[in-house]
Amino acid sequence: MKKQLQRFAVASLLIAGFAMQAKAQGQVKAEGFLGEEVISDAQLATNLKMKANYSNWKLPVTAIEQLTSLTRYVNFMFQDSSVVFVYGDGQPGHNPWHSVGAVFTPNDENIELTDDFTKLSRYNEYTVDSLYFPYLYVRYIDEIEVEGAMVPVVDTLIIQFFKSDQLASGSFTPAGSETERFMKPDNFDANILGSNNVAYEMRIPLTAEDSTARPTAEGWSTGARIIPLPAGFDIASDAAQTDLQFTNAVGFSMSFKTMVPYNFGDTMETRDGSSITNKINYFGHSMFINESVEVKQTAYINNSWWVPSDVLYTGEQNGWENSIPGNAYFDDRYVNYGFHITTSTLGTDELDKNVTFGVYPNPVSKNQTLKADFNLVNATDVTIELFDLLGNKVKEVTNGYFASGEHKVDVNIADLTPGMYVYSIKAGNSVASKKVTIMD
Hints:
The structure is a single chain. The chain folds into two domains: 2-342, no CATH class; 348-439, Immunoglobulin-like, CATH 2.60.40. The chain has four helices and 34 strands. It has helices at 2-11, 41-53, 60-64, 309-314, and strands at residues 35-38, 57-58, 71-77, 84-86, 92-94, 97-104, 126-138, 143-146, 149-152, 155-163, 167-172, 180-185, 200-206, 220-221, 223-228, 234-235, 250-257, 267-270, 282-289, 304-308, 316-317, 320-321, 324-325, 333-335, 338-342, 348-352, 355-360, 364-365, 369-376, 380-388, 393-402, 405-412, 419-427, 430-439. A hairpin with a 4-residue loop joins strand 30 and strand 31. It is elongated, with a radius of gyration of 24 Å. It is mainly beta and 440 residues long. Strands 1, 2, 3, 7, 14, 15, 16, 19, 24 and 25 form a ten-stranded mixed sheet that branches.
């Protein structure tokens, strides 16, 4: 798998106009308590069932695990750093994490190895209908007094969704290493614990019914949430012929606000066995840390990001503004999540070990553009032709010599009569054909 990733890195082109932050950016040491995530047999069965039933759940962490070993933890969020964790040695530490998120593009070829073995190229348009993530929500306070009456506590989970227009792209180069890429929100407002430039936002009330078990000596038990997106949350293809633009990116972030009044030094949790005197409610997420062989993100973008206290209060840390991408930490950090996607252009097939191709959408309307894309491991001659059902050639899509890498050809079909056609692709010594339907 590593050889595949390296080959993909070589074949990909640098992003044109790839945005760079003004300040020099350095790698960052992550500080703050991490908890062990306790995974029950029921949770494992649920996750496996989910993947089996929905082949188009895209889970980027499982793609990274094709290349290296990751360690699973839980991390905790609160709206500011005034509250503390008490460590196992009895020493308190202020909570340093306030928001977390991730961005997804289908360009990482290792993703196909983790679900249905179907590769999405950068040219595939797709729709996101759901977000999945494991979480923890520990409640110590279920009621508070408001104007002389006891009322149920309703905390808030803030979920924001982003398309490429709301994401900033950039790169950084660790000392003595390769340049790595990232995307993250183009701003962060501490007053709203999120960005003020989003595609969609949800404020989800959290009640006692949403809570997970309080931690034991072994760690934190997590639950799982699936968040539906509004209909028609469509992601464009990255249709540029040459330079990668990552217009096919989608992202999300999570933040937490509690209804419970709190003071400086109030306690989220203790790990030394002591009792909690000033209790509060808190939220957390499942995450993975790469403490093994580093995986450089040089040719695609599937990174996470965090907002630590330095960024929340001073606006930057080590030159990073708004948030810090997970691949900028010395031990790469990844949020555990999945997007459920559908696409009418998911038509990629393998011609042989050296060629993958797709013709889409299928069926296609006459007022649409038929798209043909193919990915070559080695440079070769490629011919794509369109025939009617009598075997007459009605269109030559492309005929030429192509270098290795991804290629896309648009086909004008406005002059063709609606009906069934057959397209044929020949690459080197390999030939394949399939049917495509053209509609009014």
